[in-house]
Amino acid sequence: MKALHAAALHLRRPESVHEPFLLPLDQQVVVITGASSGIGLVTAKAAARRGARVVLAARNASALDSVREDIVTAGGNAITVVTDVGDKAQIDHLAARAVEVFGRFDTWVNKAGVSIFGMIDEVSIEDMRRAFDTPLLGHRLRLPGRG
Ligand SMILES: NC(=O)c1ccc[n+]([C@@H]2O[C@H](COP(=O)([O-])OP(=O)(O)OC[C@H]3O[C@@H](n4cnc5c(N)ncnc54)[C@H](OP(=O)(O)O)[C@@H]3O)[C@@H](O)[C@H]2O)c1
Question: Ligand 1 atom 3: the closest Cα is on which residue?
Fold first, then answer.
């Protein structure tokens, strides 16, 4: 039984797989979509509190400014980039701004999303599509070597 357990451990963690290297948050630049509200906002503030430089993205400029103000007042470092994640060019612009201002980004958090409340037969296909597309397609960042 002991040998089986050891074999299972070996299967799960082969020698060739290394532990991921996680940069401490206070050395990271973190891009967060959906940073004007909810989970994205809380994540942005928590990361900034721990010393990360944060790039706040969402569509609502004044809501983003208010989050940035809170972060800066608390001693953090943040910029805002108004972004609609439904538009690939805007996602690329968001990445470019992070690199332009902070030199790079280390973590990309996709929390842009929309929720729908309504009876299934009353919600339009268009709204349903938006609810799926926003969190799923909102990360189509152009990485080197990819389309
Ligand atoms: N809260 C929960 O308990 C929970 C649990 C599981 C899953 N989720 C999912 O997690 C996601 C976020 O939830 P939440 O509670 O944080 O929602 P939320 O408070 O409504 O925040 C959504 C954020 O996404 C942004 N956003 C929406 N559409 C966008 C777009 N096209 N481009 C850029 N930003 C966009 C919104 O800002 P703007 O309107 O300014 O763009 C806002 O900052 C949703 O998909 C939700 O279904 C939530």
Answer: 39
92 domain-assigned: yes
In a domain, 16, yes or no: no
Look up the CATH number of the domain holding residue 64: 3.40.50.720
Pocket lining for ligand 1, CB < 6 angstroms: 33-40, 58-60, 63, 83-86, 111-115, 134-135
Q: How far apart are CA 79 and CA 72, in angstroms?
A: 9
Cα separation of 113 and 38, whole Å? 10
Q: CA–CA separation, 53 vs 32, rounded Å?
A: 11
Whether residue 120 lies inside any domain: the answer is yes
Domain count, the chain: 1
For ligand 1, what atom is nearest to the CA of residue 86? 31
Give a yes or no: residue 49 inside a domain.
yes
CA 130 to chain centre: 18
For residue 84, the CA-to-ligand 1 centroid distance in Å is 12
pLDDT in tens, 7-45: 444 455 556 666 777 899 999 999 999 999 999 999 999
